[in-house]
Amino acid sequence: MNAEVTTAEAPAAAAAVADAPENDTAPAEERAAGHGAGAAPAPAPKETLLAVEDVSLAFGGVKALQNVSFDIAKGEIRAIIGPNGAGKTSMLNVINGFYHPQEGRIAFKGQLRRRMRPHFAAAQGIARTFQNVALFRGMTTLDNIMTGRALKMRRGILWQALHWGPARREELEHREFVEHVIDFLEIEHIRKTPVGRLPYGLQKRVELGRALAMEPDLLLLDEPMAGMNLEEKEDMSRFIIDVNEQFGTTIALIEHDMGVVMDLSDRVVVLDHGEKIADGTPEEVQADRRVIDAYLGVPND
Amino acid sequence: MLYREAGQFKTSYAADQAIFPIPQDRYMLAGILAIAFGVVPFVLNDYWVNAILLPFLIYALAAIGLNILTGYCGQVSLGTGAFLAVGAYSSYKLMTGFPEMNMLVVFALAGLITAAVGLLFGLPSLRIKGFYLAVATLAAQFFIIWLFYKVPWFFNYNATGQITVPPRDLFGFRLTGPEAVPAVRYLVTLSIVAVLALAAKNMARGHVGRAWMAIRDMDIAAELIGIRPLRTKLLAFAVSSFYIGVAGAMMFAIYLGAAESGETFGIQQSFDVLFMIIIGGLGTVLGGFLGAAFLVLLPIGLEAVLVEGLGLSTNFAEHVKLILLGSLIIFFLIVEPHGLARLWQITKEKLRLWPFPH
Fold first, then answer.
1. Which of the residue ranges A21-25, A31-35, B79-83, B124-128 has the most confident prediction, judged by mean pLDDT?
2. What is the CATH number of the domain that holds A121?
3. Which of A116, A153, A154, A160 to mutate to test the interface with B (most CBs of B within 10 A)?
4. Within a domain: residue A207?
């Protein structure tokens, strides 16, 4: 667990490195293409927000993802789990537009997606937090969360220079929205503190705030609770549930804490060595023999 | 004691987002501006304008420009001298090509031309970062200076290779040339610098400035929240070059009156302006002023003390001045690596509580 946490310093590039070596040993006979795909309907079947079909991603000879298919329904909390090097972060990076899969299709909101840059994914409504905190360290909490509104602020450079009339109104409107996010996450007291000075748990919360400020349709959380103590984990779990319930945001999350995953998520995808080995409700996944073998080791409490 | 925030409550986001949310700061700035506009023009003389006020203001503007690129957006540039030269030469070509053109328009156009050149040399920034980008901008420095030296069209084919400012008026007052009025030169420079400094602060605190800082602090995360790296960096290059171009035009037209590409705008200028923002404080507008003050005023002050105060010979004082200046720079960088602006910020934080320690 720690190996992956520490190696993925630079989220995109290093994740590839962290995932890559272990995939070398992927047993070829264990191809599980399509295993359980489309099966296991969620408690309340809803329309599909994101559909991943037969996605394969390789770095040279290293296969990070092999024929992975799953979908994320609107409004659900979808967990992606798996042992180290299973390709979870690679999967998020593919959804995000950081990596371009060699094969397969991704449809977001029913639209088939072309090769694109990450800022385009942001414009489509996909927000993301990182395994390691990726905040703008030189800026205050408020400014960090305000950057989440970047796509929605349109006044050009000349208006900015004047900072008067429409530009000022725009700034204040977005400030108000950001203040709601700050209230929601209960970080009012650190509004004007540079994020570099904050403790880790609060930094994670600010990062969630920045993603929320984007008002995303799909929120990708890469190990939101890594390195947190119990209390911080409880807080973060509560925030994730609240985001899902209050704003109706669809959430895809990677997490290693099985207790959290099983409690939070509506459906779980299990990856191992770049392949999908199970997909279904937490109960189904927990009972799956292959999952137990690959990951949990013993039946979960 | 005077600097207390107690009892000051903000009731709107607008009040909270003001540049100077604390009234004491506003009064102080108003006081400085009142003296700068209302008192200084009546007491200044030629020496004050040429040796202190103009270089301070113009270098401050150049430093603000470089700070936008380096301090806010994190792109190191060593091409400042070249961009000053582009501003100077374009203002020269505009003044000689269109004698009737208003000087303010000349400065603005010189800035825009420099912005276009800066945009061009900013293109590599998508691919290269850090030291490598610095070296790429160094190429701009040498190439542009060589161009102005080699192509006679830029200095109107005159024999000396120098450019000399033609006399021009602004609103009926003589602004450039030998008969220019010191107070007019000072007031025009001060006004332009004040307006552009305010504009820089406004850009820095709006979403454009946040995008710059996001790119500086973590470009991957910035791209993920929808900030387009190339566009943002190029905008920083353009705005930064605009400021430096205007500074270069004023340096030539108002301050020096004559210039020669390699002599006036060499690599030394690039380093000087870079030192100013490092000493003054990266990523602050105030840092531009403080850094310029440090590097422009301190040598003059030191010389005055050494020659007139201690009675040293001019040659000797010159060397002692260099030694002292160097040691002071090292001292300040060790004591406060984030620059004089940070030092000022700490002072204010302490002042809020003074005379109590906590």
1. B79-83
2. 3.40.50.300
3. A160
4. no
